[in-house]
Amino acid sequence: MLSSRLPALVAALAAFAFVIGCVKVEVKDPPKPQDPNPTPAPGGNPLDIKPKEEDKSTPIEFRTAANGADWSGVKPGDSVRVIGKCEGTKGNRIEFESAGRYYGSRPVVPASEVSSAFKTDPTAAHTKYKGRIFAVEGVCAKVTDRELHLSGSKPATDLGKWVDPRLSAAKRAKTDITVAARDLITAKKDTEYKGKMVEVTGKVQHFEMGPGSGAAVSLGDVDTSGKLVSGVVHARLLEFEPWNRLTYDQTVTIRGKCLSVGGYAEVTDCVILNEGPSPVIAITAEELAKEYKQDKKGTDAKYYTRVGNVLIGKSLAISGEIVSWQDSKTPQVTLKGADGVKVQCYLAPGFSGFLLSEAPVGAKVTVIAQYTNQGNNETVQVNHGVIRMTPP
User: Fold this and answer.
1) pTM
2) Residue 70 is part of which domain span?
């Protein structure tokens, strides 16, 4: 009778083994036995023992974009600076998207501060941080190809020499092709350029503040007749705050790896090789407001320039005090003016995620922007504003 059941028994055991092989089993260390005679806190009950700070903190998870930076070279226990867009809490962690290592000069928030804020008052923390792009420093607790987790309590150490290892290699890289920005913009096929290290010269048209993949500069150009070429070279820089040294309409030469050509040509992992004289006009918000109040038409004419067949607002470095922020689809910061006129600065892409505590109301800043004649009797208006935390 046992022999007649033996095949069925073998089949059942095989099926059970197969199921076990398909289940991901997470093995954890067994819990440590409790001390039967714990040392009491001074003046407290023997069982009134506070847990370690690490056990109470909320971990922070940073995820890179699909084509963003990776975490190669980072290991658990390393102190790091990371930047990304805060998405608030999901489950028992704080999530950041489009993240990467940070080597810029903006203020950095300790991971313990972010973790404590979400634990103490989640509503206030979401209001302050969610949707913002900012840098955090702390200690790596876990890392994979696309994710890096920071401890919510351990402070970062030894970050005095925190430099981007890609920079030195990028600066030493050999140029394959030297081109004007218009050559990449007007190219019909990418076979000559794609994958090559290209050295590109053009004029700064736009800035973009990215999260982990760094900042970007869009370069424009004119054709041989002096007319503005339609399109840009979108250069993703390894330098995080290029607007601290560049300004609009400034000639610059960059080198990087070409990804595509055409009206929106793309070059990545770029370094700045050369920059021409800065055309920026330094002025205070009060001075600009007074000029505008006295002669609007004259001010409009003064701060516009013609490029071929197109009128373009001149590059201004406007220093002043922030009196308000407007956080919306068209984010803007307003600077204190004079004579009943204020200076309204519409911000460049990405600055809608600027952490407001970095430049709160009352802060003295310099805004790099392009003049526009779209103001009214009470407002001077400038576009594509980027905030410098220090004077130019």
Assistant:
1) 0.77
2) 53-159
